[in-house]
Amino acid sequence: MASGWNLDGRTALVTGGSRGLGFSIAQALLERGAKVAIIARDDAAVKAAAGRLDSGAGAQNVLPIVADVADSDSIHEALAQVHEWQGRLDIVVNNAGPQLAPSPVTDADENVLTSAFDTKLLGFLRVSKAALPFLSQDGTGSIVNVAGATAHVPIPNTGVTGIVNASVVALTSFLATEAAAKNIRVNAISPGMTKTEGWLAKNDAAAQQQDKTADEIRAGVVQGLGIRLGRWAEPAEIGAAAAFLASDDASYITGQVLRVDGGLSKPVA
């Protein structure tokens, strides 16, 4: 088991858990002792991801579920299934969101923005509303929303993503206020540039186009954005941050956003 926060006996749900940050967060929770259900829309992908997560961990530790965060009925059924699986639900990580093509916000199609809100912001709200009746009220209940550095930093050509992520930050604060009466904490993480498989593929494509290495492409991004730690994040580092917020070590933290961006954002207050 990984060192750090102990989640033994906890049951977690991660949306968008078949790949990218969702997969890494599910892995971090699993390594710290939690039983983890992962949700995705693609049956083959979510089952394959569950198989990779369960490798060496025991076949009863991961539950793959096919569900769509844009469908309230689908989400309610998924939450009931997770609760029935272990008889409890302690942790919900809202991660599922759309992959958006970069563009200036003034050039973005309104339908793209509407769809992004429906999938991410409203998807997070649908999952949270469905989860609240199931989440433990003994102090272990926790919701972690995955926002993003674009909520805080105007990175070029990410306006639509930034607007949606900023709305997730606001949602986190309101949910934290309302869930506190049930002894449930709600926080968010805002990852920066992270070496997920999606970004690695984009780096490789850009490297071929520009006759550079992928490492040179990433170094250029680091320099251009002024990332203070001088590198991209490893997915496991994002997973660890989510696991921390879900753990007892964060028992007095709610309504907050943890910026896991290597110093990309530079607030002074």
UniProtKB/TrEMBL annotation:
Species: Rhodococcus opacus (Nocardia opaca)
Molecular function as annotated in GO: 3-oxoacyl-[acyl-carrier-protein] reductase (NADPH) activity
Protein name per the record: 3-oxoacyl-[acyl-carrier-protein] reductase MabA
Family: Belongs to the short-chain dehydrogenases/reductases (SDR) family.
Reactions the enzyme catalyzes: a (3R)-hydroxyacyl-[ACP] + NADP(+) = a 3-oxoacyl-[ACP] + NADPH + H(+)
Classification via Gene3D superfamilies: NAD(P)-binding Rossmann-like Domain
Keyword match Secreted: yes
Keywords: Cell wall, Oxidoreductase, Secreted
Lineage: superkingdom: Bacteria
Subcellular location(s) of the protein: Secreted, Cell wall
